[in-house]
Amino acid sequence: MEDVIPFSRPFRSARELENLATVLASDHAHGDGRFTRSASARIAALSDADHVLLTTSCTHALEMASYLLDLGPGDEIVMPSFTFASAANAVARTGATLVFVDLDPTTGNIDPVQIAEAVGTATKAIFVMHYGGMPVDMPAIGAVAREHGLPIVEDNAHGLGVDAGDRTLGTFGVLATQSFHDTKNVHSGEGGALLVNDPALVDRAEIMREKGTNRSQFLRGEVDKYSWVDWGSSYLLSELNAAVLDSQLEEFDGIQRRRLEVWDRYATELADWAGESSVRLMLPPDGIHAAHLFYLLMPSWELQGRIIRHLRERGVIATFHYVPLDSSPAGRRFGRVLRPLDRSEDFSRRLVRLPLWAGMSEDQTTRVIEAVQSFRL
Ligand SMILES: *Cc1c(COP(=O)(O)O)cnc(C)c1O
């Protein structure tokens, strides 16, 4: 049998080994060195953001966001049910309650109408996630947030550098987060970033990342000693990871171009099969997305498992995605819903993601397409 086509494969950038060797040969392997500065500047330029702090993960950046917003018991956060557990963990850790709402089936993104219904006197913030880098409905969500004076936090793990017309993803919320886990478009093994878009939060974010000390100010020569000034933890990314990240970010345009080529072939070459099979292909409004993932929405729940098995038998690893948080054991413990989230459940049970990574060859892409086309409902 031909080689198995994995669902995803971490990108290998040209300069990462050389960068790593530079760090290891130096006397500076902890964070905040030359590669941290360079990678942060690249993310800032890609995102059009003023303040970028590299972190140990996106989960930790979300945790920082929850602490920066001073969430605590009695507070409520409105967030999507169809997302990864990270934002929910970050909020639950503070003792605040999660209010999960349903999605817009066009994109899988949080539905602004349901946000408006869920906001109450205890609501402290709205958390959103741009699924596949498809922008959430920012005008509508922004209007709800302004009406109630609520900050927005963007989990932008999928959407680094996505141009959403009048702004770039990651600059819409007061705080936004990126992931550099090795399943993401650009990676450092593990890693993340916090984009601080409210200048009033920058100093505290820096202190929080440096174990509650003002070491960053000390390193810039702004204070002559550093001490413990606030609550913090060890959220700073190691220079070793930053060295890999910097090299990957250097090739960002090429990575995106190669991922987009695969994405475009799926969208074009699977269209007829999808039409005949009543399958819906991923349909990004205005064509805006991050080429992070490509999905099919099968016409029934039962067909999700069937096509995944069919593809696996042909050496193609496809997979489902998030199990809605509201129906998960921890979601039931830390959160609540206004009503059953039928659309999240339906979306989750019909969705199938195809392999997508920057190094996929034309042949491999063709094999995935032919394996999908050979599935008869
Ligand atoms: C990958 C991912 C995360 C977690 O990122 P880490 O860097 O592994 O913590 C969070 N949210 C979303 C939407 C993700 O896809």
TrEMBL record:
Keyword Transmembrane: no
The EC number(s) this enzyme carries: 2.6.1.59
Keyword Lyase: no
GO molecular function: dTDP-4-amino-4,6-dideoxygalactose transaminase activity
Stored InterPro entries: DegT/StrS_aminotransferase, PyrdxlP-dep_Trfase, PyrdxlP-dep_Trfase_major, PyrdxlP-dep_Trfase_small
Cofactor entry: pyridoxal 5'-phosphate
Pfam families assigned to the protein according to its UniProt record, in alphabetical order: DegT_DnrJ_EryC1
Keyword terms: Aminotransferase, Pyridoxal phosphate, Transferase
NCBIfam families in the cross-refs: PRK11706.1 (NF008687)
Family (UniProt): Belongs to the DegT/DnrJ/EryC1 family.
Protein's UniProt name: dTDP-4-amino-4,6-dideoxygalactose transaminase
Organism of derivation: Luethyella okanaganae
